[in-house]
């Protein structure tokens, strides 16, 4: 499964067309990372590894679900590390979104017949623990569509979980999340 997930990540990034020069440079950097690291999707790959996330939106209600991350202290989209059972990068993002939101029936936004990334974000974290050096998450971000009126169920991976109107994001949200929400909103109307 490791080889097929790696191949899928390369395929997903290689076939993704990006209009923004900054996103294009990240896409190329991610592909270079995967070319140099056969284990580049796993938490054990240091100093950087690919992660997968999805911003969960309810387009019918014009709202986005965010989690208050216990380690970071910010409201973020759902996401995390790839696992050996993930068949694809998109499946990893959907698994994380489903686990952390408690919402069954989430569907990733698709284009051309399959799920596609919508944004890349490279950021420093301490996923190995407070006493360990920071490493880099090379996050591949998707949009997950929630069924209309979906109710979230908080998991033990979150301090809090709440729906927010697109224009009413909490103060403790970083620029990357705000950009992701704006992008998702533009894609689904």
From TrEMBL:
Gene3D superfamilies: Nucleoside Triphosphate Pyrophosphohydrolase
Domain Nudix hydrolase: 47-186
Name listed for the protein in its UniProt record: NUDIX hydrolase
Source organism of this protein record: Kitasatospora cinereorecta
Keywords of this entry: Hydrolase
Residue ranges that the Swiss-Prot or TrEMBL entry lists as coiled coil: none
Any one Gene Ontology molecular-function term assigned to this protein's record: hydrolase activity
């Amino acid at each position: 499964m490791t080889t097929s997930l790696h191949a899928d990540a390369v395929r997903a990034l290689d076939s993704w067309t990006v209009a923004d020069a900054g996103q294009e440079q990240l896409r190329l950097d991610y592909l270079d990372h995967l070319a140099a690291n056969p284990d580049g999707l796993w938490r054990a790959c240091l100093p950087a590894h690919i992660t997968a996330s999805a911003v969960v939106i309810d387009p019918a209600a014009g709202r986005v679900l965010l989690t208050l991350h216990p380690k970071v202290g910010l409201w973020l989209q759902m996401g995390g590390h790839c696992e050996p059972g993930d068949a694809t990068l998109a499946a990893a993002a959907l698994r994380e979104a489903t686990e952390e939101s408690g919402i069954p029936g989430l569907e990733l936004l698709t284009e051309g017949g399959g799920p596609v990334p919508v944004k890349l974000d490279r950021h420093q974290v301490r996923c190995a623990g407070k006493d360990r050096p920071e490493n880099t998450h090379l996050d591949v971000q998707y949009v997950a569509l929630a069924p209309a009126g979906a109710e979230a169920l908080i998991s033990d991976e979150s301090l809090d979980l709440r729906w927010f109107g697109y224009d009413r994001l909490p103060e403790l949200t970083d620029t990357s999340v705000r950009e992701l929400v704006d992008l998702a909103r533009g894609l689904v109307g």
